[in-house]
């Protein structure tokens, strides 16, 4: 719809509007807002952050309020929304889905309350405050107890029909006891969200499949709703909060349900009907001063929630009063959103640095023009790998929208190609290691380029940093900076040297008083007795995270038992798949790794699983063979248990065999063993007892 030249000129107007909010012509502001609405709702290519849009919209509203005679019928403030993409069937909502007015501070909230009180001639108003869920809004229609259709918000008047996709969301009931409440048809509104956990899990899965990552839970939820395949929607673990009944009609002769007198009552009713309404999250507050305090307090709590919210919604609780206050064409006058500090910003991608991690993976890191988001200055963000850069078409000099949300690491949401001047440059990925110049390699199934030089300085340092880190050996007072410094000064060259540091030399370094040297020494000594899983994790074996390390540790006695386990046996452990088993197997069949472990053992590090039910080496010297189908244990797991306790697995029945463990449907091996008197034939349950005792 807009030409490149128009986009450039409108962006430059946007900048002016944002920089000089008090010196803009209404006409320009309307043009700019219309343009951004088009980009957001129609083209699905927003060119400014939501926050920036809100600032512009607020400006329009206040300018129009000052000169109501200048309001035009086509002003963005005078309509509900825009037209739609029409890939899914477009259906009209029973009641238009209005938006909310925004507020950012106590003054805005006091204004809202004052206007409402004046209009209703009341001394004070009771409000119901609830989270403003950061997802994608939907409307649902239930008829005769059944969910009959679900739509996106669309332009507010009509949305796209997405019933099949919505049916995949488990927190949305497919039928509800509407008739019990005397209701025949009901339209409700809510927000589809992806929890932080579902989002992180989903991104992990994408990563494992070498697919591009999703930028944030909101995009993930919104994108999911319009997917062609409902099954895929189901795999995304979406959730939905329902917060509004927009329409209902009663079965003849029925009375309005008693709860439908207040907003809080309606949340309770929705909850009772089986919806995830913010029934537990809501707070009833008797005046605006209390609301303001609650908003301030809640913003601090924001990151402790399991899902993203971008503010709170303050609603007049009494329905009769809501009706009295009415609505504009854009928003109800009985509700207002209190928006938290923005977490998105636009900035410039100035440079790219390539960092080499402990496994040799080369990660491109975007160096950005520093920008403050949510009180934190962001100037560098990981771009994961080359594919990520290509997929998002990121170029040096690009204007990018970045986001920093709670415990989600900062992300580049997307670049804004429309703002390119022609001087932007394609990001070239290096072909050799930026640290040691070794030729980079990429496995077919992987997205990352890797430096496979084991002596690469960057990897050595990163491995040590990982070794001492909090979730690994947790050597406090030994941060990244110290490791780098000691390495550069030649005081520390590899992991074992952590345990042979020359504390006298360190004590002479600037910034190292006696106390800090003592603390470091104590922390290093203490780490020697860390539980085995921490050491396994600290070694930095590829694909072995903390959880896998715990699993492995629970199945062995001494770390070097891992030398004796086959890949198949390793796969018998919970959550250990082919890839992980292969990595562990190769790690423990590499002489230099074994040497490292033996050196660490000589230095006094704990190599033993201490808090296990396994008894040390209680099967030492005994030979086992399993036959038939085991019911409690996987075959590989049972074999691993034997080997981890010093026993051996034989491949056939012979006089060397001490125990034949017989599962269901045992065949010829059992018959053969019966003929050799020295072989003890035991059941799976006997075996489990034997292992434990
Ligand atoms: S009430 C007439 N309540 O925020 C009812 N909206 O920025 C108006 N939203 O379009 C909506 N959480 O999609 C309401 N607890 C909540 C909400 C909420 C999120 C969304 C909704 C709305 C948008 C406005």
Biggest sheet: strands, sense, closure? 5 strands, mixed
Share in helix: 25-40%
Instruction: Using the alpha-carbon principal axes, give the shape.
Output: globular
Spans of at least 5 consecutive residues whose pLDDT stays below 50 are 79-86
**Secondary structure tally: strands:** 22
- Give me the side-by-side strand order of the main sheet: 2-11-10-3-9
Average pLDDT: 89
State the end-to-end distance. 77 Å
Indicate the structural class.
Answer: alpha+beta
Radius of gyration: 32 Å
Bound molecules: 2-(butylsulfanyl)adenosine
**Quaternary:** single chain
**Into which percentage range does the β-strand content fall?**
15-25%
The total count of helices amounts to 24
Summarize the structure.
This protein is α+β, with helices and mostly antiparallel strands and 693 residues long.
Description:
By secondary structure, the protein is an alpha+beta fold. The protein has 24 helices and 22 strands. A 5-stranded mixed beta sheet has the order 2-11-10-3-9. A 5-stranded antiparallel beta sheet has the order 14-13-12-16-17. A hairpin with a 2-residue loop joins strand 13 and strand 14. The chain is globular, with a radius of gyration of 32 Å. About 1% of the residues have low confidence. The structure holds 2-(butylsulfanyl)adenosine (IVH). The site of 2-(butylsulfanyl)adenosine (IVH) has 14 residues, from strand 3, strand 8 and strand 11.
């Amino acid at each position: 719809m807009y030409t490149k030249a128009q986009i450039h000129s409108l962006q430059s107007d946007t900048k002016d509007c944002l920089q000089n909010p008090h010196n803009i012509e209404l006409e320009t502001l309307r043009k700019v807002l219309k343009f951004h609405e088009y980009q957001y709702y129609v083209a699905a290519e927003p060119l400014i952050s939501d926050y920036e849009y809100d600032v512009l919209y607020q400006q329009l509203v206040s300018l129009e309020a000052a000169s109501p005679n200048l309001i035009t019928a086509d002003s963005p403030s005078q309509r509900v929304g825009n037209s739609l993409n029409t890939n899914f069937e477009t259906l009209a909502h029973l009641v238009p889905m209005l938006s909310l007015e925004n507020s950012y501070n106590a003054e805005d909230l006091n204004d809202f309350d004052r206007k409402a009180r004046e209009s209703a001639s009341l001394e004070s108003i009771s409000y119901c405050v609830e989270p403003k869920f950061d997802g994608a809004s939907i409307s649902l229609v239930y008829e005769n107890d059944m969910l009959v259709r679900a739509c996106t918000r669309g332009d507010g008047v009509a949305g796209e029909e997405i019933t099949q996709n919505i049916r995949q969301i488990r927190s949305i009931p497919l039928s509800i006891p509407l008739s019990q409440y005397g209701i025949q048809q009901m339209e409700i509104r809510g927000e589809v969200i992806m929890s932080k956990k579902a989002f992180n899990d989903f991104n992990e899965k994408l990563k494992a499949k070498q697919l591009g990552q999703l930028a944030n839970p909101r995009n993930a939820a919104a994108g999911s709703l319009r997917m062609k395949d409902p099954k895929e929607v189901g795999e995304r673990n979406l959730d939905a909060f329902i917060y509004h009944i927009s329409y209902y009609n009663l079965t003849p002769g029925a009375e309005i349900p008693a709860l439908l007198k207040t907003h809080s009552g309606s949340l309770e009713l929705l909850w009772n009907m089986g919806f995830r309404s913010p029934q537990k999250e809501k707070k009833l507050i008797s005046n605006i001063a209390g609301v303001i305090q609650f908003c301030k307090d809640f913003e601090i709590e924001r990151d402790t929630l399991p899902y993203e919210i971008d503010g709170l919604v303050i609603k007049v609780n009494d329905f009769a009063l809501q009706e009295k206050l009415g609505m504009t064409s854009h928003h109800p006058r009985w509700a207002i959103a209190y928006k938290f500090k923005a977490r998105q910003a636009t900035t410039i991608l100035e440079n790219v640095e390539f960092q080499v991690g402990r496994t040799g993976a080369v990660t491109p890191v975007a160096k950005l023009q520093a920008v403050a988001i949510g009180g934190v200055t962001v100037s560098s963000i990981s771009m994961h790998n080359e594919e990520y850069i290509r997929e998002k078409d990121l170029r040096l000099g690009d204007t990018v929208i970045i986001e920093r949300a709670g415990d989600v690491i900062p992300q580049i949401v997307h670049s804004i190609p429309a703002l390119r001047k022609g001087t932007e440059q394609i990001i070239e990925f290096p072909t050799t290691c930026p640290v040691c110049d070794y030729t980079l390699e990429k496995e077919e199934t992987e997205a990352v380029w890797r430096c496979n030089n084991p002596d690469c300085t960057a990897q050595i340092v990163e491995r040590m940093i990982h070794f001492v880190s909090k979730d690994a050996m947790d050597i406090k007072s030994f941060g990244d900076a110290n490791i780098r410094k000691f390495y550069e000064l030649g005081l520390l060259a590899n992991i074992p040297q952590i345990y042979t540091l020359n504390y006298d030399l360190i004590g002479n370094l600037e910034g190292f008083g006696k106390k800090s040297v003592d603390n470091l020494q104590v922390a290093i000594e203490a780490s020697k007795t860390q539980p085995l899983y921490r050491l396994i994790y600290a070694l930095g074996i590829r694909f072995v995270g903390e959880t896998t390390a715990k699993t492995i540790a629970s199945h062995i006695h001494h770390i070097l038992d891992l030398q004796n386990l086959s890949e198949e046996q390793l796969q018998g452990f919970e959550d250990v798949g082919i890839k992980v088993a292969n990595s562990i197997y190769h790690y423990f069949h590499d002489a230099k790794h074994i040497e490292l472990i033996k050196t660490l053992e000589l230095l006094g590090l704990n190599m033993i699983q201490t808090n296990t039910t396994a008894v040390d080496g209680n099967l030492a010297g005994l030979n086992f063979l399993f036959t038939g189908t085991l019911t409690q244990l996987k075959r590989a797991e049972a074999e691993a248990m034997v080997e981890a306790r010093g026993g051996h697995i034989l491949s056939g029945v012979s006089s060397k065999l001490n125990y034949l463990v017989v599962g269901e449907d045992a065949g010829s091996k059992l018959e053969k063993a019966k003929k050799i008197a020295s072989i003890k034939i035991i059941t799976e349950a006997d075996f489990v007892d034997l292992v434990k005792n």
